[in-house]
Amino acid sequence: MPVLTLIAGSGNPSLAAAVAAALGTKPAACLIQGFPDGELRVELHESVRGHDVFIVQPTGPPVADRLMELLLLADACRRAGADRLTAVMPYFGYARQDRRVKGREPVGARLVADLVGTAGCSRAVVVDLHSPALEACFPGTVEHLSAVTLLAESLGTAREDAVFVAPDLGAVRLAQQFSRRLGRPMATVHKVRTGPEAVEVREIVGPIQGRAPIIVDDMISTGGTVAAAVRALLAAGCVPDITVVVSHGLLVGEAARVLGDLPIGRLVTTDSVPVRADLPLPIQIVSLAPLLADVIGRLHRDESLGSLDAFR
Amino acid sequence: MPVLTLIAGSGNPSLAAAVAAALGTKPAACLIQGFPDGELRVELHESVRGHDVFIVQPTGPPVADRLMELLLLADACRRAGADRLTAVMPYFGYARQDRRVKGREPVGARLVADLVGTAGCSRAVVVDLHSPALEACFPGTVEHLSAVTLLAESLGTAREDAVFVAPDLGAVRLAQQFSRRLGRPMATVHKVRTGPEAVEVREIVGPIQGRAPIIVDDMISTGGTVAAAVRALLAAGCVPDITVVVSHGLLVGEAARVLGDLPIGRLVTTDSVPVRADLPLPIQIVSLAPLLADVIGRLHRDESLGSLDAFR
Amino acid sequence: MPVLTLIAGSGNPSLAAAVAAALGTKPAACLIQGFPDGELRVELHESVRGHDVFIVQPTGPPVADRLMELLLLADACRRAGADRLTAVMPYFGYARQDRRVKGREPVGARLVADLVGTAGCSRAVVVDLHSPALEACFPGTVEHLSAVTLLAESLGTAREDAVFVAPDLGAVRLAQQFSRRLGRPMATVHKVRTGPEAVEVREIVGPIQGRAPIIVDDMISTGGTVAAAVRALLAAGCVPDITVVVSHGLLVGEAARVLGDLPIGRLVTTDSVPVRADLPLPIQIVSLAPLLADVIGRLHRDESLGSLDAFR
Amino acid sequence: MPVLTLIAGSGNPSLAAAVAAALGTKPAACLIQGFPDGELRVELHESVRGHDVFIVQPTGPPVADRLMELLLLADACRRAGADRLTAVMPYFGYARQDRRVKGREPVGARLVADLVGTAGCSRAVVVDLHSPALEACFPGTVEHLSAVTLLAESLGTAREDAVFVAPDLGAVRLAQQFSRRLGRPMATVHKVRTGPEAVEVREIVGPIQGRAPIIVDDMISTGGTVAAAVRALLAAGCVPDITVVVSHGLLVGEAARVLGDLPIGRLVTTDSVPVRADLPLPIQIVSLAPLLADVIGRLHRDESLGSLDAFR
Amino acid sequence: MPVLTLIAGSGNPSLAAAVAAALGTKPAACLIQGFPDGELRVELHESVRGHDVFIVQPTGPPVADRLMELLLLADACRRAGADRLTAVMPYFGYARQDRRVKGREPVGARLVADLVGTAGCSRAVVVDLHSPALEACFPGTVEHLSAVTLLAESLGTAREDAVFVAPDLGAVRLAQQFSRRLGRPMATVHKVRTGPEAVEVREIVGPIQGRAPIIVDDMISTGGTVAAAVRALLAAGCVPDITVVVSHGLLVGEAARVLGDLPIGRLVTTDSVPVRADLPLPIQIVSLAPLLADVIGRLHRDESLGSLDAFR
Amino acid sequence: MPVLTLIAGSGNPSLAAAVAAALGTKPAACLIQGFPDGELRVELHESVRGHDVFIVQPTGPPVADRLMELLLLADACRRAGADRLTAVMPYFGYARQDRRVKGREPVGARLVADLVGTAGCSRAVVVDLHSPALEACFPGTVEHLSAVTLLAESLGTAREDAVFVAPDLGAVRLAQQFSRRLGRPMATVHKVRTGPEAVEVREIVGPIQGRAPIIVDDMISTGGTVAAAVRALLAAGCVPDITVVVSHGLLVGEAARVLGDLPIGRLVTTDSVPVRADLPLPIQIVSLAPLLADVIGRLHRDESLGSLDAFR
Fold first, then answer.
1. What is the pLDDT of residue A219?
2. Is the per-residue pLDDT at A230 higher than 90?
3. Exposed site from D157, F17, F187, F260, fewest CB < 10 Å?
4. Residue B93 sits in the same domain as residue B36
5. CA nearest C301 in F: which residue?
């Protein structure tokens, strides 16, 4: 069996270190350095010849730099004789560009998947992709993990009056999974346009009145979708103690301000990307490290992922 | 400008002929013949050297034969010097296998897309794919058309008490499009499991009581999903005069019996696949021929599809 | 050394089971199921991660379904992490479409070989291809086996007056191999056109008068070629006790009727495809299982095939 | 329509010039020069940007140099912006390595076809390939022409007692074509091994006694096959005035001496490769130039080859 | 002839606009917008179906964003039906990573070239690559232009005592070109290590004493190389009025401070990347727009570049 | 670990044998035979199934034959089931065609690299490529070794008055390496054109007067560059006892005569290609066998090359 080597990109070094620790190892020594002109210099300080290499690199912001770094690391490993390259991308940037909406746009998700393949990665490990059908866009194999189990466990026993809320249609599948797992009902926020000239309003389907909503989604970026859902939930008479559970906590732009103004009691997310420390609301971070370490170990030892709760 | 040549597979020869007629031409003469052992013999009787070839072949049942025929036709055209090959697949078989659900399955949709590319088609034209993100799985370019406009027009002015119903979550996007276009509300049938041991029940979100449902979906296969939705709608007190509108009317297996037992006043679908003539309910077929002819003409003349209502 | 896993397609499950048994194993548990619309659902019930997988699937009738099933199985294995995929195709459908005869046809054999490669198989094992030069059309490596040794052994000591007959030119190489191996002369049936307007007649080269012919060919489909040869042999005064030996016994269409009318004492063939049980003549089936098991075992253990009598 | 440009390799410059003349043009000015160390320097002296380029280069002896030159010319054209590259290879070296005979050999024909594709040629034009199934080994499209019509016409009216002779089984298809076209019978020389220890003898099938043989084959290399056939024909009582007709007259090694000793009245061949001027027997050379010019012109103008007698 | 469309990335919009103006057109309307999370949204507002598209995008700082934008634009064009895609990269980032220096590094230049190919560009136009042999790393064709003529013309008649100086060995070829063109001598700054422990010193070869140096190089990044050369030249007794001529004026990091301290009378460079306006020294910018417009026009019209002085 | 197998092409069989001996093995038995028409027949006499195969084949003169042989051997190995194929090319022909100089030429180095990849080699081992940036042109991985250490050691302690001389700019990097390693100064021969009409003269930079020059270069072909350098050195007053050190001693054409007329006391080179025995000057050959054996052994055992002095 080839040697397992873990490479930590700068996308989330502490997550990579935790994954390595859980595997009883350390990330391989390597240099990742920016030149004054912004080009990256990458150099591996350990041999990877014949190794089974996993590069841990979420491609969150700054997404182009993170992606370029992943590609350069992969190229370096490939040329240095790595046996097999797996891109471990707990957060997969550009996943929302999964189709052309208006007609003359790129399909960014497919492009990124192809670039990762071009750089030599024959396999990817991803977590809670924005659209499950994205699996089909990878040129090689892809293991699509779910953080639902981890997040659900972190919620503990949900209060009796809890209701899982999908803030838009894309999140219904996730809400269903939480609902089934924790035995609480679910609701969905629909965007409705009341007329050709009218503005879009949000209408809620499911029991909300007097209940404590737990909004679930795959990611939170600027917080806009969550904020709109919260306002609709409050208008529908929910208990003003809202929990937000998302796999990927990007929290960019005005997110801190937007969320800070809302009665959000807790934000639960994973460390797929580094989470900002300056947010004006209580954040609970569930580490993906044990899950990723388990999966990487199984993949390395050619063991089945079938028994994994988080696998699909 | 190269010559436009239209090849008609046996997937729906009358659709292909109508497309050709709308383009002021005829399908190219060719032989498609089954040998006694089931292998197909394909031979083009006209030159396609340097032509811009469009092969019209929905890959409905029998799907493997239809697909193989498409691949053989493409290979024949490619070897005969066709300049560019476009697979016009109004119905795209295996679209529902768009991801691995349990973990050790194929991703049939990507496989089929790759096979079509392997055979030499650099472009595909498809209609109402089961999942919009499937666009990302094609190796070449793909034009993803929608039959919603055509189907909506065929409904004329909807009765006042109409409500568009998505029979499951996958159809919500479609129901929204109909709802906006025709100015009637929408409802969604959710599958809900009431407990770990309990059976799945269907719960309806949206106004149904006393309304006339128009169920919309991308396809109807055995009719099971529609039948379950109809039962739930009736239980919810809808007017017992139900319309079903689907892009692809496969109607296989027990579909005739299943649908015949229900108070379905009308089934509206397109001719993406040939529709069975023996169904015990009124069927209205909207031809895709004008749309496909328009798109093929524009693609051939390198014109924009942007102004097309049916484009995205 | 990776684990050997054998997958049995539905092309010939009993052959696959026999191969597995000879290897001391069983085909991997998997689901192959037809949906009502004819699409296949494939699911592996065992892990193949890191395994050396051999998919046993002759692509006899219904050829498109068999091929599609093979491609789906391969795609499932590839995505599930199989280390190497070998398509074991004892009968290789579309082998006769090995070139364009009239000019605007597909080269079906190359197309099929490319499709098998596209689906992830890097190696194929085939038996008595219609044309030996087909080896060049596979994108990966191919092991081309011969059933001649097995078939010759099954004939035992040929009677003194036997003569091996090639029913057309394509079979001459096979007839030579039998002739050399069993020490009996050979003859060839030539198709001759006696004039521009005249019909084609068959002329025999070699000793026939008073001899018992053993017609050998790579395959028998509808029986037409064999029937024509038999008539020519009888006209040439052969002993009216004819043996027919073919590697692949498709026996489709009118084969039963056509052959039943002829003085064929015995038909010897292999189980490359399942052989019909309803034929009105004595059939002797030689199983390829021991040979395939031997070859698969050697390939799996990285041993040479050089000493194999059936190799080339 | 892009400009047609013809590039003449050094494989047969006078053929290329004749082809160009028949097309009303001249080969493009280019430099092909050997460095003292044997590397080739290739430089185009005319622009080929956007042109439809045909490189005329038979890959006869010295085959590796001819092939390398073709590949370098193609690479130069591709980089200089040629629109489409067609390799016109009237003689295709390595065609006889069309399969592995003993098991650990290359498949030279496929390798060469792949190399030509790697260098940028998307199409090939070839003449009388050693094995028709080689068509399947080309990655792009291939137009496989036959010189039979030209050669048959050059024979004029065959004498009454002529018989077309295939010197081995591989030539039977050719002999049949001549036989049908010129209305004379055919015969075949079979190699027969009379016993395990015995030497191989040649046995003739068909009418020879008192007839004037016209031996036909795709190529003559050292003359060994023809010489053996001639001896067998003489032993069978043929008229000692033998004609030899081959598409490709390589005539290497001892060919001059071998053939000079035989009663060969005439050797008819094409100029697919330059024919040696020093042979001690009358040679009639039929130029492929008109055929190649016709085909190149049609391909360039995107016209059908279907009406061409020499096409298949 | 397909329509020429020019797309302007945000790498140097004013250069792109000038190129377009010189071609008598305008860059196509398109949206390039950053999302709050740093992902780019790209949308073409004009049809490019069937067009001959040139994307003008130097990949200077921030290099990863510029590159990602180029790739997304290319993907959008490809999917929108562009006929041919040419990446016009006046500055090609990562060109200095042209080989592995220490052994476990990426070859960034090849990686970037491959990525550009993966995104659909079949051709690139570049200017004064760091290493001429980089041409070999592009998967498609590449037109490698030189700014030497433009820069030399901008110098006008050089003063009598001028000397062209290569600040390191990589610049010697450039210095030779200037020297020949303007009829002034050249000198080279060599880095010399005087002993194993000793520091590196710069030694000058060529006439410097009393002469006015014109330092030429392909690019200036932080100014370090130029500063070292200037110090060495001054120490060698040159006239303290130094001119610096570079193709690419990145001028990042401490460049302004570093160069401001030196007796540099003039810095001449092109607009391959936008040049900072805040430099404390006189800068003369020579626009590449006329050259790029000329080349794009010729490529579009399939004309030769051979007569172009700047071509190689 | 797979079995290591070494295949010896005919490019330098004694080098291959020495490499094998150093690895404690012998080259695999195989047949490499020329047919009378110049085609090569290649056949492996040992199984390579699953082996880690290294083909030792410098592609010196006759370069096309050597290259074709390498490609055929690779194809044979690949089809015979080799696990991994490494092309060990101590001399890499066509390396000087690393870019287009005048505009319509091939990039021979990239073409050859691509051909080697097409034939199945995923890795190459090369020595002192003409241009280091050529590394970027290989499709797979490449290990670029240097013979400088070996050559420097063979020089022993250089005489006090020695000076390392780069005969042109391309050799400066090599001269620097020798200079640093052996503690002697260096000089460079520049080609200078004194005026537009004037002939090219050679000017020397560095200390020559009264010193003993050691000319170093990557290769010597016809000896022209060395001869010109020697004449310039003598004119500059060097000691008339000159040593020439090159990695690759092709010595083709007039090399013997050219060099024989010069005061060259010693020519030191490696056995990357077989060195002519008939040269009229003392030649010292340093074998690459130990280095290649060391590298092959490390690559085979998946060990790092990092500690190798000759690696980069």
1. 96
2. yes
3. D157
4. yes
5. F50
